[in-house]
Amino acid sequence: MFTPDPDYVPFCGMPPLPAELMARWTLDPALLAGLALALALGLWRVPAGGGARASFISGWGLTAIAFVSPICALSMALFSARVGQHLLLTLVAAPLIAHALDGRRVPPMGGAIVFSGFFWFWHLPTPYQTTLQSDAIYWAMHLTLLGSAIVFWSALFGRMDRQPISGFLSAILVGAQMSALSAILVFSTGLWHDWHRAVTAPYGLSAMADQALAGGLMWVFGSLLFVGAIGLMVVRLVARAESRAGIGHATSPR
């Protein structure tokens, strides 16, 4: 049984009641300074042309929303909100940021393995509980999740044309591991995270229902995104094969 430190207040604060939620914006000076520094570095390093800068700014903006908006406070009450925050960071913000970066130096499968490892690790009971006892561990969780997701997506984008099979297999791996974790959460007969045991009721959910909802969100949105990504890669593979066949036919002697 997890027993929280009564003297420690987590970074996002204590779980809010529904009536308090919309007033719970996280305007921590260190957080705002870190976001401002990340934006400045991105604008300095990312080229202005080709939509790269717009993609980076969009991803940065979604990252800021994940931490500054009431999503942060809601994640202290609902595990499903924490999972939603992680999905926003790793499956939406990260690919937008990655689109602006050069990922050709990283093998897609290597990026997939690292991201999958962090995704499982931080959602397991003991590591998850430690993030509720230390700001340093809380930020270690989010920085490794977001960072490894950016590495994975940038590797996938950077090598999609030169190594399509590797990208295809890496997307299958990430989608499969996310589906497996989702299924475990949905069908588990025991509560994974005791922190949420007594704080979900004001939102009309039992802790077990909240856990199943978290798994469902991960399953539906994760699966849809990776099915779409895999479908896009198949289309590109077919188009590439047809293009090569067309060039070969056009240059063959008659």
SSE map:
Blueprint: H1 29-45, H2 52-68, H3 71-77, H4 79-99, H5 108-123, H6 125-130, H7 135-158, H8 164-187, H9 207-251
Can you tell me about this structure?
This protein has helices at 29-45, 52-68, 71-77, 79-99, 108-123, 125-130, 135-158, 164-187, 207-251. The protein is mainly alpha-helical. The protein has one domain (18-251). The longest helix is centred in the C-terminal third of the chain and has 45 residues, at 207-251. The model has no long low-confidence stretch (mean pLDDT 88).
Helix/strand class: mainly alpha
Instruction: Indicate the mean pLDDT.
Output: 88
Radius of gyration: 21 Å
Number of β-strand runs? 0
Uncertain parts:
none
Number of spatially distinct domains: 1
Could you state the order of secondary-structure elements as H and E?
HHHHHHHHH
Global morphology: globular
Strand content: under 5%
Total of DSSP H or I helical runs spanning 4+ residues? 9
Q: Quick one: biggest sheet?
A: none
What distance separates the N and C termini?
78 Å
Q: Helicity range of the residues? A: 55-70%
